[in-house]
Amino acid sequence: MSESQHVLFTGGGSAGHVVPCLPLIRHFQTAGARVSYIGTAAGPERAIVAPTGIEFHAVRAGKLRRYWSWRNVADLWWIAVGLVQALRVVRRLRPTVVFSKGGFAAFPVVVAAWLMRVPVVAHESDLTPGLANRLSLPFAAAVCTTFEGTRFASRRCPVVHTGTPLRAELLTGDAARGRARLNAPAGRPIVLVVGGSLGAQALNAVVRDGLPQLLEFGCVAHICGPERTDPALAATPLYRQFEYVVEGWGDILAAADVVISRAGANSLYELVALRKPHLLVPLSREASRGDQLANAQYASDRGWSQVIEEHLLDAARLNSAVVEIYAARGQIIERLAKAGLGDGTAPAAAVIQRFARLAR
């Protein structure tokens, strides 16, 4: 791809709508294309994209809700404002192609690109499409999916199964460095708990309730979420807690023998692609639109994941599942290898490049 090509990325509202863009941004930077990003000023997009060094443009975006709220009325105004702002930016940047990772931050950019006759390639991570991507579908030239089983109720564009782009640091993680980071003694299994941010407190509480038994089994690395570490447990041997991890995350993941995680599409895909035995605890329908339940069921049906729904989770079930998964880790890794999921960067980039060529 030449310098005359300009790939404009968009997506936001949560980190899951931004992080998969990073490998693609690096790909097109290496290929010599101009790369830029449109997100919101209030969301996490700017901070996540900043290390890539690309130009960032902020627009307003009204939140897209699936339920009635008086704030929906006000957000219709902000969607309109965001569309006008996105039109101005797209007209000024004149990109060759737009890649949309979804989220409410992307919708005004997708519509603006369509109005400016710029092809849009969207990407859907979840098994069941999110609202922003469903609304964006009529304006997209193509849609990439993480899972082969993803279906759209209606579509007028090609749907291509590409998988999810994976960050280089995940693909090059070093288990020895990860064990050293965690001060894990040789021969002790490592249980990695990824509570994240959304709905983390319920999972954190069960993990801490069962911590004595977990520590009899092995070492525990616990990603608790912002402001959710427990100072009373700071000196507990074999237990390391973090609000989040950026530097060295690939090493910690490589060192983990069993991972306990929510069932967000990006996290699930990474665990399968990296062949990590794991337990999924999906967010309930009360806390989400049910996408994690669908993701977890899809993975469970294929033998990739063991699943415990949140309302059934307690310390005893958690510890029993960890021991069971660790004992069967050899067979589990074989099943994950047969899934054939890998880095989706090259397949997604190929779709973007196809429409970039057609645009000129």
What does this structure look like?
The strands form 2 sheets. The protein has a 7-stranded parallel beta sheet with strand order 3-2-1-4-5-6-7, sandwiched between helices. Helices cover 41% and strands 15% of the residues. β1, α1 (21-30) and β2 form a beta-alpha-beta unit. It is α/β, with parallel strands linked by helices.
* Helix/strand structural class: alpha/beta
Overall mean pLDDT stands at 90
Strand content: 15-25%
What string, H for helix and E for strand, traces the elements in order? Answer: EHEHEHEHEHEEHHEHHEEHEHEHEHHH
The main sheet comes to:
7 strands, parallel
Write the layout of secondary structure elements.
Layout: E1 6-10, H1 21-30, E2 34-39, H2 45-49, E3 55-58, H3 71-93, E4 97-100, H4 107-115, E5 120-124, H5 131-136, E6 142-145, E7 159-161, H6 168-171, H7 175-182, E8 190-194, H8 200-209, H9 211-217, E9 219-223, E10 239-242, H10 249-255, E11 258-261, H11 265-273, E12 278-280, H12 291-301, E13 306-307, H13 315-327, H14 329-339, H15 345-358
Parallel strand pairs: 1-2, 1-4, 2-3, 4-5, 5-6, 6-7, 8-9, 8-11, 9-10, 11-12, 12-13
Helix pairs in contact: 1-15, 3-4, 7-10, 9-13
